[in-house]
Amino acid sequence: MLDHIEKTTTLKAPVDRVWEAITDHEKFGEWFRVKLYDPFREGEITKGHITYPGYEHFEWESITRVIRPKSYFAFTWFHDDIQPHEGTGRLSTLVEFKLEPRNGGTHLTIIESGFDAFPPGAGKEAWKRNEGGWTEQVSNITAYVDG
User: Fold this and answer.
1) Can you give the pTM of this predicted structure?
2) SS (H, E, C) 89-104
3) What range does the domain containing 47 cover?
4) How far apart are alpha carbons 146 and 60 in whole angstroms?
């Protein structure tokens, strides 16, 4: 099983616009299809719920790890829908957004890592589900910022 998912794209939108779409919790929610109740702040929890059809019953909880303005944003994303091994903590992955100016636009890299810490079989299933999900999210953010 792979431990991480990596997606890259070059957007027409400038870094400022992409950065805002990723780090403003309300704008993030518009393209990601999640209702977030709290802003992203380093070291703090952001809660909400998924609004994507068929997944509305999923709660969102993340902890913002790093905000390096206009270049890097990372959060720990909890996967409470998957049962951990007895005696271990909550399962989570690290989601990173890396932005680089490129020809008037923005080169965006999204990485989600940490699947190898999941129980056997569950990590592979989560990876497959999220790999397809990130493909869709790249399309969503492209439409949102380049639209």
Assistant:
1) 0.93
2) CCCEEEEEEEEEEECC
3) 4-146
4) 26
| CA 46 – CA 30 distance, rounded (Å) | 15
Residue type, 135: T
- pLDDT at 83 (0 to 100): 64
Residue 51's CATH number: 3.30.530.20
What share of the chain in percent tops pLDDT 90? 72
Q: How many domains does the chain have?
A: 1
Amino acid at 75: F
Distance CA 145, CA 107 (A): 13
Q: By the 8 A CB rule, do 61 and 46 touch?
A: yes
Determine what percent of the chain falls in helix, strand and coil, rounding each to the nearest 5. 30, 35, 35
Q: Distances from the Cα of 89 to the Cαs of 50, 118, 130, in angstroms?
A: 23, 11, 21
Q: Is the pLDDT of residue 32 over 80?
A: yes
